[in-house]
Amino acid sequence: MVKVAIVGLGFMGKMHLGIYLNKLQDVKVTAICDENINSLNIKNLASKGNIKISEGVVDLSGIEKYKNYELMLKNGGFDFVDICLPTFLHKNAIIKALEANYHVFCEKPLALTLEEGNKIMEKVKETGKLFAVGQCLRYWPAYSAIKKLIDKGKYGKVSYAEFARFSATPEWAWKSWLLDNNKSGNAALDLHIHDVDMVLYLFGRPKSVRSAGVFWQNESIAHITTIYRYNDKLVSSTGGWICTKSYGFNMRAFYILKEATIELDFSKSPIVNIFPNKGKPYALTLAEDDGYYYELKDFVKSIAKGRLSGIVNVETAFESLEVCLSEIDSAKTKKEIFL
Ligand SMILES: NC(=O)c1ccc[n+]([C@@H]2O[C@H](COP(=O)([O-])OP(=O)(O)OC[C@H]3O[C@@H](n4cnc5c(N)ncnc54)[C@H](O)[C@@H]3O)[C@@H](O)[C@H]2O)c1
Question: What pTM, to 2 d.p., does this model score?
Answer without folding.
Answer: 0.96
